[in-house]
C-alpha cells in the first residue's frame, strides 16, 4: 500500500489503491485544509515533492495545466502511482490538522423546510443515528442523493448539541438535492443519509477584529460562527458584509440583528449589487479605508469562488494581510449529467 509523507507537518499515512490522498487522510484521523473535495475550489492545492500521482477529474480553475507542469496537485484528486509519495501543503494549521470529530455515515429525517428567498431555503434535519453525532461551527455534511451514489455538500448554520442539522440551500432547477426542493419532494418526514462532518473552516481564538464576508448560501457557516461568538460572549469587533443582488435576496435579518445585539461591537452591512452598491469585496475595501477598526483582522470568507478570490486578493495583495489570517469556504457548483448545484 502506498505511503504518503505530508510536509511540513512531518506526518505519514497509507493510501489505498482506490483512495485519494485526502480521503486517506480522513480515514486516518486528519483534517487537512480542504473545501469542495471535487477538484473545483483549489483549497487543497499542494506541491508534489516526490513520486507520481494520477488525478481524477478536476477543474482547470482549481489547477491549471501550467501549475500541474510545475508540480502542483490537488489532494482531493490525487491518487498515488508510486509506493512512496511526498507532498508539501500550501495551507495548513500547525495546531489543528487532526480531525476533531470522526467522519461517519448517518441517517436523518427532514424536520422542517422554510423558503427564505426565491432561490434559498432552509432544511432542518433531525439526526436519527449516530445518536452522538457532533460537529463544530463551520463544518459541513454530505447529503446522500436518494436513489443514487451521488452526494452533495452543505454547511451547517446551527450550533451542535440538540441533535439537529440546519442547512441553507441555494435552489437550482435540476439540482440533485436542491431540485427536490423545487419540485416539492423534499418535505418534512423524508429520510436522508448523510456523511460528515467535514471542513476546516472554524473560528480562531485570538484578539484580532473579525471580518466576515459572505454571499448566497455562504451565509450558513457564517451564521454558525456568529452564533458561536454570541454564545461564548466574544468581545472583539465583528463586521459582517453580505453580498446580494437586491433587497429581496436578503434573509434572516432579524436573527442576525438579535445575535449582533449580544456582541459589544457588531455591524452587519448588506451590499446590493443590482441597486448600485457594487460588489461586496469593494465595500469591504472602502470600509477598511475608514480606519474604523484595526486592519490586522481575522477574515472569514464564504460564498461563490469569484467573490472569495476577489476578497482574498483585496486583503492579501491589496492590504498586506497575512494569508494565514484569511479563512475561506468556497461554495462551488456541482455539475454532473445536467445537474447544477451549489455546494460547500
Description of the molecule:
This protein is α/β, with parallel strands linked by helices and 344 residues long. The chain folds into three domains: 87 residues, Ubiquitin-like (UB roll); 97 residues, Translation factors (Elongation Factor Tu (Ef-tu), domain 3, Beta Barrel), CATH 2.40.30; 124 residues, 3-Layer(aba) Sandwich (Rossmann fold). The protein is 19% helix and 34% strand. The chain contains seven helices and 20 strands. The strands form five sheets. It has a six-stranded antiparallel sheet with strand order 11-10-13-8-9-12. Helix 6 runs parallel beside helix 7. The protein is globular, with a radius of gyration of 20 Å.
What would a concise description of this structure say?
19% of the residues lie in helices and 34% in strands. It is α/β, with parallel strands linked by helices. The longest helix has 14 residues, at 219-232.
List the helices and strands in order.
EEHEEHEEEEEEEEHEEHEHEHEHEEE
The CATH topology annotation of the largest domain reads as: Rossmann fold
Helix content: 10-25%
Give the biggest beta sheet: 6 strands, antiparallel
The domain count comes to: 3
Tell me the β content: 25-35%
- Helix- and strand-based class? alpha/beta
Query: Radius of gyration, rounded?
Result: 20 Å
What is the CATH homologous superfamily assignment of the largest domain?
Nucleotide-binding domain of ferredoxin-NADP reductase (FNR) module
What is the CATH architecture descriptor of the largest domain?
Answer: 3-Layer(aba) Sandwich
Number of helices: 7
Number of strands: 20
> Based on CA inertia axes, which overall geometry fits?
globular
Report how far apart the termini are. 31 Å
CATH class group of the largest domain: Alpha Beta
Strand order of the largest sheet: 11-10-13-8-9-12
Query: Low-confidence spans: pLDDT under 50, at least 5 residues?
Result: 335-340
pLDDT averaged over residues: 93
